[in-house]
Amino acid sequence: MNRLYVVATWVPRRETISVGALGPVTFTRGWYAYVGSARRGRDARVARHMRADKPLRWHADYLFARHPAVRAWLLDTGLSECALVGFLCAVIGAQVWAPGFGASDCGCEGHLIRSGHAERSTIGAALAELPGVVRVVQL
After folding, report:
1. pTM of the prediction?
2. Which of 12, 16, 67, 91 has its CA 20 to 30 A from that of 25?
3. d(Cα 28, Cα 14) in Å, to the nearest integer?
């Protein structure tokens, strides 16, 4: 069983943010959702993404420090982070965005997705339909 989370934010205009080792990354206007995991400390990580005054430790922190998450979902599921990203991309028409935002040991493109048209409620609706999910909690 994987303990995953999804956090979403709105970037209102195109901007470039220096993202640690990735350097300058340009974010275009739209909804961004990050899929992460933490067997222990999942709730603490979600809380970090929902406030701006945090130390910058992980790549996603740089985006969420500038644009704190406005929605979050906690999941207990048999899916991996990569499988959840694939599901969300297929269902809401999002795309994997900003390679390097994934976990360093999974080898995927990344766990940050972008959708210019999807409402944050669309993400929640998609997660509610996700097969194999034991629990989804929206914060």
Report:
1. 0.86
2. 91
3. 4
CA angle 104, 110, 111 (to 5 degrees): 105
What was the pLDDT predicted at 94? 85
DSSP string, 2-21: EEEEEEEEEE-S-EEEEEGG
pLDDT of residue 16: 95
What are the pLDDT digits (tens) for 1-18?
788 899 999 999 999 998
d(CA 136, CA 2): 12
Helix (H) or strand (E) holding 89: helix 81-92
For residue 101, give both structure tokens. Answer: 């935002």
Q: What angle do CA 123, 133, 41 make, to 5 degrees?
A: 80
Helix (H, G, I), strand (E, B) or coil at 138: strand
What residues contact residue 98 under an 8 Å CB cut-off, 6+ apart?
19, 22, 25, 27, 110, 112, 114
Provide the pLDDT for residue 128: 81
Given a cut of 50, the residues of the chain with pLDDT beneath it are none
Which among 32, 78, 28, 77 is positioned nearest to 59, based on CA atoms? 32
Measure the CA angle with vertex 90, ends 89 and 92; round to 5°.
70
